[in-house]
Amino acid sequence: MGTKRVGSAGKFGVRYGMRLRRKWLEVDKKQRTLHECPVCRRKSVKRLSTGIWGCRKCGTKFAGGAYLPHTNIAKTVERVVKRVSEEENVQMREVPETSGPEA
Ligand SMILES: [Zn+2]
Questions:
Q1: Of all residues in the chain, what percent carry a pLDDT higher than 90?
Q2: Which residues lie near ion ligand 1 (Cβ < 5 Å)?
């Protein structure tokens, strides 16, 4: 129990389906690779922490997306992740009480 190997997409749970999971895995893979520096154009940009990126060649630090420096897919995923967490909140609030004597 609880030993399913789903990688870093596991945090979204099973019910969000493969599309989001694939999207996430795609981003996850990209965030582990080096990105092009906006200043020196070398592929040396690494994520330092959430939303903070740094170039190892010229030392530039800049704020970007939480998971990728600045790309469309980052925006898409951030939107999806936000929506998912909102849905999760709604679902948690709407859990019906079924343990009463009338249930
Ligand atoms: Zn640079």
A1: 9
A2: 37, 39-40, 55, 57-58, 60
CA of 80 to the centre of ligand 1 (A): 30
| Domains of the chain, residue spans | 35-87
Burial class (CB in 10 A: 0-12, 13-18, 19+), 68: buried
**C-alpha 29 to ligand 1 mean position (Å):** 21
Evaluate if pTM is beyond 0.70.
no
Question: Which residues, listed in sequence order, are joined to residue 36 by a DSSP beta bridge?
Answer: 43
What is the 42 CA–ligand 1 centroid distance (Å)?
6
Query: Which uninterrupted H or E stretch holds 85?
Result: helix 72-93
The CATH code that applies to domain 35-87 is: 2.20.25.30
The set of residues, in sequence order, having a beta carbon less than 8 Å from that of 47 and lying 6+ positions away, is: 31, 53, 67
